[in-house]
Prior knowledge:
This protein is mostly beta strands. The protein has one domain. It is 0% helix and 47% strand.
Amino acid sequence: MVLSGGTETISSGGVASGVTGSGTSVAGGELDVQSGGTAAFASVSLNGVLNLSSGGTAHDVTVSSDGNFNVAGTTTSNVTISSGGAETVSSGGVVSSGTRIVNGGSEDILDGGTVIGYRIHTFPSLRVVPYLMRRKASRPIRITLGPGFP
């Protein structure tokens, strides 16, 4: 667990892992994944920050309650942004299939950021947003789902 004021750094070859519900929890602290490092089964909340640098990878990440996930590397699967959580995909960042934005989550896709195979869960008839299936942003995009979406 990385609490407020704490920082954990994962360098090349390093892995912070676990299983669903028992991986690294970033609650107010900061988890930095450098090139060649991997974060898996992480949860980010309470103004915590997960920084995924270029060349770093992450999967099975949950961001909520004012947590922030900054992506300059690659997410490979199972990322959920919900309930006040935010994800920012910067230039060179790649968010792969398996990313879900649910009630109250938001995402900024900056110039040069890429999203692939997107699902935005709001209600049963809206499951995939086709224009985001494989897109490189030429200008910033913000996706926000507010209260009232199941």
